[in-house]
Design brief:
It contains 8 helices and 17 strands. The protein is of the alpha/beta class. The longest helix has 25 residues. 40% of the residues are buried.
């Protein structure tokens, strides 16, 4: 089975690496163009490109998939299947139908839930107990194609979106190989997604970052987990902005939302439902990330201080 692989970030690289390890015939890779990264804006290739070049796989980085250039390359390669994992570009119908088995996508949610750009983060932000990976046949809709294979997994109560991302990338790679084996043997049984509006996992933005301490302790804990490691939940402490990297649900109770009720090694904060969260790790603007215990050794956060003000 001759494969063209389309993908860009680390999540996609895990799938490509699995295909290489399993000796699949990956004839070419399509990835997003190199982008400037960091303060010095150094032009940096995406992880999928790096991995492909390390394995001597030709890489193509078209600016557009709609001007016919990509289709011409695909037709010359004449793949049996195109695998798309977090590529970041919309594929026109002529590309979706250009290969024998069409285009197959690995999506990090239990479709039809969390169609769209940020399914992993929103599963954590919403406090879901379960998520997974869906391998689907692509069509012209947004993550609406027939489901070919589904793998489920539980979400830990303290698991961050970064940690879940790493786990799902490996689950997705295994699921992809299982789906490809069924496609190759002709045993796959596509399942249509139910019709209806199941919501959309919109792109994560910094507008989500400020913690609203009037919300419940569970919601605030989910926010911190869901926005880790970018863009991170934030709050004001003594008038200065901090990123909040790690929290735990506390067994303490509080009164006023945002009030610090304990500062003994952790920063325990009262939430809107009268329950509390413990801040375990934080980062002041322009400073390094550190534990709350280390921060409190050199800085005072008195009980009674109200965060967010």
């Amino acid at each position: 089975m001759k494969i063209i692989f389309m993908g860009t970030p680390d999540f996609a690289a895990s799938c490509l690496e699995k295909l290489i390890d399993e000796k699949y015939d990956v004839a070419a890779v399509f990835s997003q163009p190199d982008k400037p990264v960091g303060r010095k804006q150094i032009l940096t290739p995406p992880p999928v490109k790096d991995l492909a070049e390390e394995n001597n796989i030709p890489v193509y980085q078209p600016q557009s998939m709609k001007d016919g250039t990509a289709l011409e390359i695909i037709n010359k390669i004449n793949p049996d299947i195109i695998i798309v994992v977090a590529y970041g570009k919309i594929l026109p119908l002529e590309i979706l139908t250009s290969a024998k088995f069409g285009c197959v996508n690995v999506h990090a949610s239990l479709l039809p839930k969390y169609r769209g750009a940020a399914p992993i983060q929103w599963a954590v932000l919403n406090g879901d107990k379960e998520t997974g990976v869906t391998v689907m046949q692509m069509n012209e809709g947004l993550d609406t194609g027939d489901m070919l294979y589904v793998e489920k997994t539980e979400i830990g109560e303290n698991e961050t979106s970064e940690e879940l991302f790493d786990r799902l990338s490996l689950i997705g790679a295994d699921a992809l190989v299982k789906a490809l084996d069924m496609i190759d043997k002709g045993t796959v049984e596509p399942v249509k997604q139910p019709e209806g509006d199941f919501g959309y996992a919109v792109k994560i933005t910094k507008d989500l970052c400020p913690i609203d301490w009037s919300r419940s302790a569970q919601e605030i804990h989910n926010l911190v987990r869901g926005l880790q490691t970018w863009p991170c939940a934030t709050t004001l402490i003594n008038g200065k902005n901090f990123k909040i990297h790690k929290t735990l649900l506390s067994d303490k109770t509080g009164n006023k939302a945002g009030e610090v009720v304990d500062n003994n090694g952790v920063i325990t904060v009262s939430c809107g439902d009268g329950k509390c969260v413990d801040i375990l790790e934080l980062q002041a603007d322009g400073k390094k990330r550190m534990s709350a215990s280390a921060y409190l050794l050199g800085n005072k956060i008195e009980t009674g201080t109200v965060l967010g003000e």
